[in-house]
Write a structure and sequence with these properties.
With 326 residues, the protein is an alpha/beta fold. It is built from 13 helices and twelve strands. The chain starts with a strand and ends with a helix. The structure holds (2R)-2,3-dihydroxypropanoic acid.
Length: 326
């Protein structure tokens, strides 16, 4: 008998076909997230789960799905899954690292440029029909070239952002829990500094740290107060890395000049007041949303799931301890 797999949301048909070759698939083609009770019901007698960031897979869900052997997340981030609980229950967890780094770095640059130059507001103005003639004082933004870029978290995506910054002749600062190897620093022309120096000296601060308890509210009121009044903050990492309420206050009161956000503390809801502000650009968690990358992510999640259910080691296993315990 084929193993049974639940796919909680729409993924690319190529990926579904791959899973269907080896498994009996129950897929939610409506692409609306299941409510927690619906998810529990759907997970009954399932051996595998292909899920998205919108699905919370905690110990309660795992306890009520005793047949489950693998949870395959269609994302590199996996803060929606309690990996420790899964490990304790012998459930494999996988993610989709690597394939979205360049696409996310590209999008970070979309946010940087569009925020600094007020592109969305300019587009809205043009569409409204209010623009009557060219003017020296219209649509004044901030230059990006030759400015200082501060990268918080020099992982794969942070490095991609730094690489692209060289084309803008920027001074690049970075901070991280661990300093990068000198060859990488030299290649990227990136200087390691402490967080405080980075916040005080950067014109653009871009966040690329993963979400852990230690990085929750990595940027809060005290950090925002350290930044230049002309600086912009970019977040394409995870929403809770920024204290969104404090950010609204900072943007309103001019502690910083602007922000470009792709992620939110309580997705999909913005903090009160955020959408009223003109100096913030708001994207709906779309940094990895290119056709090529989302296809690769879907395929990777499918391959991870099939491997786990056919007695092979999933290529992107986050908790190999589970295999050792078998
Ligand atoms: C991820 O993969 O973690 C992104 O946030 C969505 O692509």
């Amino acid at each position: 008998m084929k193993p049974k797999v639940l796919v909680t949301r729409q993924i690319f048909p190529e990926a579904l076909a791959l899973v269907s070759k080896h498994c009996e698939v129950d897929s939610n083609q409506r692409d609306v997230p299941f409510s927690p009770p619906q998810l529990l019901k759907k997970l009954q007698r399932k051996d595998g789960l292909i899920c998205l960031l919108t699905d919370t897979i905690d110990d309660k869900v795992l306890a009520k799905s005793p047949q489950l052997k693998i949870v395959s997340n269609v994302a590199v981030g996996y803060n929606n899954i309690d990996v420790n609980a899964a490990t304790k229950r012998g459930v494999m967890v996988t993610n989709t690292p690597g394939v979205l780094d360049d696409t996310t770095a590209d999008f970070t640059w979309c946010l940087i440029l569009a925020t600094a130059r007020g592109l969305v507001e300019a587009d809205k103005y043009f569409r409204s029909g209010k623009w009557k003639y060219w003017g020296v004082m219209q649509f004044l933004g901030h230059d990006v070239h030759h400015k200082t870029l501060g990268i918080c978290g020099l992982g794969r995506i942070g490095k991609g952002v730094a690489k692209r910054a060289r084309g803008f002749d920027m001074r690049i600062l970075y901070t991280d829990a661990q300093r990068a190897n000198p060859i990488i620093e030299q290649e990227l022309r990136a200087t390691f500094v402490d967080k405080k120096t980075l916040l005080q000296e950067s014109d653009i601060v871009t966040l690329h740290v993963p979400l852990f308890p230690e990085t929750t509210h990595y940027i809060s009121a005290s950090e925002l107060k350290l930044m230049k009044k002309t600086a912009i903050l970019i977040n394409a990492a995870r929403g809770p890395v920024v204290d969104e309420k404090a950010l609204v206050k900072a943007l309103k009161e001019g502690w910083i000049a602007g922000a470009g956000l792709d992620v939110y503390e309580k997705e999909p809801k913005p903090a009160p007041g955020l959408t009223k502000l003109k100096n913030v650009l708001l994207a709906p968690h779309a940094a990895s949303a290119s056709v090529d990358t989302r296809l690769k992510m879907s395929r990777m999640a499918a391959e991870n799931c099939v491997a786990g259910l056919t007695g092979n080691r999933p290529p992107n296993l986050l908790n190999p301890e589970v295999l050792r315990a078998m």
